[in-house]
Amino acid sequence: MARIVVIGSGMGAMAAAARLAVAGHRVVVYERGRTHGGGVGRFARDGFRFDTGPGLLHLPAVYRDLFVKTGKQTLEQSVELSQVDPASRHLFADGTDVRLPNASRAGVLQALDGAFGAGAGERWSDLVNRAREVWDATRRQLLEEPLRADWRVLGRDPYPAAPVRRGRLGGLFGRGGADGPPTLAGVARRELKDPRAVALLESHALAHGLDPRSAPAAATVLPYIEQTFGTWYVRGGMRALADALHERCRQRKVEFHFDAEVTGIVEKDGRAAGVELADGTVAEADAVVSGIDPALLPPLLGGQAPWREGDVRPERGAGGGTPGRLTVLVALRGARPEDAAHRTVVHAPDREAELAAVFGDGHGLREPCPHPTVTVLRPDDPTVRPDEEHEAVTLTAVVAPHGPVDWTDGAAAEQAAQRLITAAEAAIPGLRDRMLWHEVHTPAHTEAETGARGGAVPGPVLAGADGAFLRPANVTRLPGLYLAGGWAHPGGGLAHAGMSGALVAGLIVEGEDWRGSQ
User: Fold this and answer.
1) In this predicted model, what pLDDT tens digit does every residue of 53-109 receive, in sequence order?
2) Of the candidates 459, 418, 467, which has an alpha carbon nearest to the alpha carbon of residue 438?
3) Beta-carbon neighbour count of residue 409 at 10 Å?
4) Most buried pick, 98, 247, 411, 448, via CB within 10 A?
5) What CA–CA distance (Å, rounded) separates 141 from 60?
6) Is the dihedral of CA 83, 84, 88, 89 positive or negative?
7) Is residue 341 within 8 Å of 393, Cβ to Cβ?
8) pTM score, whole prediction
9) Could you count the other beta carbons within 10 Å of the beta carbon of residue 337?
């Protein structure tokens, strides 16, 4: 039995801890904050409860596998999981209103034809079919295996070219050419035509903090995953999933220490041998799992970087320049209408202006967008509201991280929140008249709570773009030190964090030549 120390208690770290404990190891978690879950937080007031992190779950099979492998109770026996239908409602500036059914290819095709005109559904379906090829080509390397030493093979975008008539000879596009490798924005314009369909596709990238103008065409896999495997909600919010995973860890005798900041990683005989805490004590270990941003590790290693020569570095697609989330938690009087969609996306009227505000205008300037894309979550869940005559609503927009924008400026943050509320009135008529109160959660709050630079929220890994959207490998230059969580392979999001925990556990239990479950 080995003693393993885990730094942080985010979802990836806890997933690793539970699996390692089941394998017979003694696992101790040190968390600098007061609670578990990392970015999967909760705010409660006056009988209302809100998620301050992700509000929906994709690829629930990741957590089904985790709960099956770590105990007798399945995921569905631990939390109440339900599909969201419609998966999403989309509102556009021209008044177009389309509801997309959950995990129904034919239903989505019909809905898009009805909203955008004949042929729109088929064009979308063709794009999703090509995205399936991306999924089949990269799923194992990106999600089910530790990152290979020859990770540069993933730098080529696997999105297949779509046939296009070019005079009498025909031709292909999508593989790049004189204009460089294909981007999601380029694919959207060429294959979908309708600007509303383009905005629909690009919104999937934006929701993950990706700029569609630079994200590789392989990002089409994001709507493919959602449309194929469905959109799911946990009763009580995603925080209930974090609570269930924490409880599973406790059942497996994982030991948690909160308000316990790790200030150093101990090395002995060329291996990670434990951690030093802020109070000066040392916790010895046979292996250390870090669930924090790898870019924060050098100070814990005496200034030495944890990655090996030739490894993916944290600055590739990650770091303080990655966008954050502005979240407005709204308590409403009045019952939730029965026909209300769980998730509504109110699209920005000017996408280019929004992208410039979030990702920069080419001159390093970023500021709050006057008309952002806003996601409105209205769960039909009696556990998140005081009674049936009230409603808990969460508004979210992707914004520039703390630093380019000063999110500690309360007045500026409130002005930005009011923009979200104004946009959300398209989804909830009379919203302001129903408001009891609202709370604003900015990237500055995220940074303070999780330590993420700028309050950034990591996105999932993607192939293409010369590897710019990959994350550091789970194995480091220091034997015995491993990386888990959204800032390590295979990237951010609830499902990907759970996968990172599985990969780290496999590497520790089976050895560093382990290549994933067969």
Assistant:
1) 999 999 999 999 999 999 999 999 999 999 999 999 999 999 999 999 998 999 999
2) 418
3) 13
4) 98
5) 19
6) positive
7) no
8) 0.94
9) 11
